[in-house]
Automatic annotation (TrEMBL):
InterPro entries: Cyt-d_ubiquinol_oxidase_su_1
Protein name per the record: Cytochrome bd-I ubiquinol oxidase subunit 1 apoprotein
Lineage: superkingdom: Bacteria
Alphabetical keyword list: Cell inner membrane, Cell membrane, Electron transport, Heme, Iron, Membrane, Metal-binding, Transmembrane, Transmembrane helix, Transport
Keyword check for ATP-binding: no
Protein source organism: Primorskyibacter flagellatus
Primary site of residence: membrane
Organism placement in taxonomy: Bacteria, Pseudomonadati, Pseudomonadota, Alphaproteobacteria, Rhodobacterales
BP GO annotations: aerobic electron transport chain
Keyword Metal-binding (UniProt): yes
GO molecular function, one term: heme binding
Length: 555
């Protein structure tokens, strides 16, 4: 990698973004699973479900806290490292980020406190409402972030204003209901649900292997496998929707994912495996499955999917059209209100391709001075790294189908085999705990690396988006972020492992005793101290006989 400001800025953002996304999917999934468990507790009044809610809720809380801290850093980077990007498209990109802060972050941040500290103060239904508000807030947060990211992939509802030299929003609802953004949202949250399900399954399997917390582990496996199976299936279905969307909005990315160098007669095959060679413009030892890519990408048997070579030719045409728009724009900047009508008309006719002309600024200060060779090179730059995207996508898909198989097996054993699980299966469940994170990170790699060389697809090249910083500035901040995030990662892992080893703070009998005391306080409003002894509470069970050796009361 060339050591320059743009590449270092990309590396730093990739580091912080991929680190932040270690926490996001688990937060999304655990928030829903915890709310489901508390719902079962309220409906059945069985203490084991309250115990499960508090235990998995604690792990959610640890993950949530570190996820918030790392997410804030990302948003500041738009001003620090990508200031021209923020200036150029901030009117559009800033709106969903602001809504994410107002509607989602404050919602989940407010109610997460009530969730952890409101057990003694709220009724069952009130606390259940809090649990669901935390889950909704977490998912709303993902919605607005992915609307912002989806706009970068498919910039609708906005246009370039030659007077301000910036992109400006023209239709807020087009931005919100962007097909790419909606497909990314449902696909991403489903992947988060799978991540949490695999995590819960693996931790519960570890408990069964150790012979600890058997009832909690078995019920957690039942919940995780059912929820995880539905989520894993939805990831596949929604991934298909993303592929169909890309065939209309990001044709080059789709061609790179498939290493499809030339347009194939419809319906196009799916390359299951192969070795892309960019220099030779071919894929060696390709194993193809007929028709599949055509059905996924176009949902028809007659529509073609353009290949990379054809798309490069189209990019060159767009660059030449963009040069006409750029030349007219320079005249508008000079003449202002006195610009001839034919010049403005010329700009309007070609303005959609202005971003392609800006690709030439990587080679020449004034795109109008570009040579034919530079135009051809800029067109070739629209091809992302084919081999990395090709393999990342296939590993991600392979892991996705693995999750379906694992969840289906455990769902079958939990539902029809009396929750009896072979030890080899439990060991396998523990071993695959990291796999969903690998799949999620690869998915983001495909999405973002496959969009290059654009920060905003077809609008703003990455090479123009970075701030005017020095290489040394970026090396210092990159080293600082790496060190700080490494410390946070160690803290996260230490806390999670500590509380997983410790297990639930209460046993089931102790939880049952707490429930009796709490319901009495709410019913009589006697104002007793929540830590009053059992003897002072009518109908309560003595805790001294309920605790197992080593149990630590939380109440």
């Amino acid at each position: 990698m060339e050591l320059n400001v743009v590449e270092l800025s990309r590396l730093q953002f990739a580091l912080t973004a991929m680190y932040h996304f270690l926490f996001v999917p688990l937060t999304l999934g655990l928030s829903i699973l915890v709310a489901i468990m508390e719902t079962v507790y309220v409906m059945t009044n069985r203490p084991i479900w309250r115990q499960m809610t508090k235990f998995w809720g604690l792990l959610f809380g640890i993950n949530f806290a570190l996820g918030v801290a790392t997410g804030i850093t990302m948003e500041f980077q738009f001003g620090m490292n990508w200031s021209y990007y923020s200036h150029y498209v901030g009117d559009i990109f800033g709106a969903p980020l602001a809504l994410e802060g107002m509607m989602a972050f404050f919602l989940e941040a407010t109610f997460v406190g009530l969730f952890f500290f409101g057990w003694d103060k709220l009724s069952k239904l009130a606390h259940l409402a809090v649990a669901w508000l935390v889950a909704i807030g977490s998912n709303f947060s993902a919605l607005w972030i992915l609307i912002a990211n989806g706009w970068m992939q498919n910039p609708v509802g906005a246009e370039f204003n030659p007077e301000t030299m910036r992109m400006e929003m023209t239709n807020f609802f087009d931005v919100i209901f962007n097909t790419v953004a909606q497909a990314k949202f449902v696909h991403t949250v489903s992947a988060g649900y799978v991540t949490a399900s695999v995590f819960m399954l693996g931790v519960s399997a570890w408990y069964l292997l150790k012979g600890r917390h058997i009832e909690l582990a078995r019920r957690s496996i039942a919940v995780a496998s059912a929820f995880g199976l539905a989520s894993a299936l939805s990831v596949v279905v929604l991934g298909d929707e993303s592929g169909y969307s890309a065939s209309h909005t990001q044709k080059m990315k789709l061609a790179a994912i498939e290493a499809m160098w030339d347009t194939h007669p419809a319906p196009a095959p799916f390359t299951a495996i192969g070795f892309p060679n960019r220099e030779a413009r071919e894929t060696h030892y390709a194993v193809e499955i007929p028709w599949v890519m055509g059905l996924i990408g176009t949902r028809s048997l007659t529509e073609e999917i353009p290949g990379i070579n054809q798309l490069v030719e189209e990019a060159e045409v767009n660059i030449r059209s963009g040069l006409i728009a750029y030349d007219a724009l320079m005249t508008i900047r000079t003449e202002r209100d006195e610009t001839p009508a034919d010049i403005r008309a010329k700009f309007e006719a070609h303005s959609d391709n202005l971003g392609f002309a800006l690709l030439l600024k990587r080679y020449v200060d004034d795109p109008r001075d570009a040579t034919e060779q530079q135009i051809a090179q800029a067109a070739d730059d629209t091809v992302p790294g084919v081999a990395p995207v090709f393999w990342a996508f296939r590993i991600m898909v392979g892991l996705g189908f693995t999750f379906i198989a694992v969840m289906l097996y455990f769902f079958y054993r939990a539902s029809f085999r009396g929750m009896q699980f072979p030890r080899w299966a439990l060991r396998g469940a523990v071993a695959i705990i990291p796999a969903p994170w690998i799949a999620a990170e690869l998915g983001w790699f495909v999405s973002e690396y496959g969009r290059q060389p654009w920060t905003v697809d077809g609008v703003l090249p990455t090479a123009l988006s970075a701030s005017h910083l020095s290489v040394m500035d970026l090396l210092i901040t990159l080293a600082g972020f790496t060190a700080f995030y490494s410390v946070l990662f160690v803290i996260e892992m230490a806390l999670m492992l500590k509380y997983i080893r410790k297990g639930p703070f209460e046993d089931v009998e102790e939880t049952d005793a707490w429930t009796i005391r709490h319901e009495h306080r709410l019913r009589t409003h006697d104002g007793k101290d929540p830590f009053a002894s059992d003897a002072a509470e009518p109908g309560s069970a003595p805790l001294s006989n309920a605790r197992h050796p080593g149990a630590t009361p939380a109440e």
